[in-house]
Each structure stands twice: as C-alpha cells, then as structure tokens.
Amino acid sequence: HLPGMRTPTAMIVGLVLCPCGLLLTLTGTLAPNWRQVSHIPDQSIDLILEQGIWDMCQEQQSTHNRLCGQADELGYFEQVPVWVAQRLMPTSLVLNLLGLVVAALGVRCWQKEPRPLLAGVAGLVLFLSGLLSLTPASWYTHELWALPAPAGSTLVVGYSLVLSYLGSCLEILGGLALTLSFHRCCKER
User: Where exactly are the transmembrane stretches of this chain (predicted)?
Assistant: First the structure.
C-alpha cells in the first residue's frame, strides 16, 4: 500500500450517486403524484387529481387550491401495484440508508485507507435498494392505464414516478460503482 492512498474514483462515484438516488426516491415515495388524472367528466375542466402511493390530492389549476386526503372511491389503493409500492419503496429507502452507512465506513471516513470489502458489500446493498425501488416504479408504469380512474378521464405519468425511476437508476449505478471495490479486494489478497 502507498501511504495516504487516494480514494478510488469508483468509490467516490458511488458515494455521490447513491445519496442523490436516496433523495429522489424519498421524494418519489412521499409526494402524492405517481399519476395525474385530468379531464374528469362532470368536474371542472381545470381539476387535476394527483394519485400517489399513500395519498390522493385534487388541485384546481386556475386557483392552485389543493386538497389532499381525497376519498378512494374506486379502490385505487387496493390495487396490487400500489400495495407493492407501499411496501417496497420504504424497504428500499431503509436499505439505501444502511448501504450508505456501510459505504461510509468502507470508503474512508476516519481511516487512512479505504476498506474495499466493506465498500463492495455496501455496493451490493445499494444495488439491491435500487432494484427494490425500480420494481414498483416499473410495475406501476406498466399498469398506469389499467389502475382504476373515472371513466373518460385523461391519465398521465406524475413527477413522483419519474423521480422514483431516476432515484432507482442512480442507486443501481452507484451500487455497481461501489461493487467494483471487490476488484481491489481481490488484488490485495
């Protein structure tokens, strides 16, 4: 070993991408906008219903009056893709936090040398975290138009779903970057 060896680039990339992924996934999980329903028959033309995995809000576009906690009259929250997202998204967030703690210990923190084995394990955990959030986001997207909505309304992808996708991809890429640390581990043996 060279004394004061610099932190490998792959580790730095992993430590930058994964917290960004965590923030995007957290926002995507909490914000009630996985899908927007507009042009609802018998409703004001500027009314938009925003559906997330925990809440439903309606907003008048002209006045920006927003009311959350809308009644789920069509059984939206009972649908399997929503139910799965309610379980996998928080699980992904917890795994991401755990992975970041392990990554911080493995990449450097307070020691002189990075610990490639710990960084690699963190990479696997973060990669898994990304897959756990990508799965419900993908499934929801696939079922977006099949989930219950008022007949004749227009459905579009909401920003929370997009953020969940982006966050998942950043976590997967960051996790993969950190798993490259296993290579250093093998070289040292």
Answer: 12-31, 93-110, 117-139, 159-182
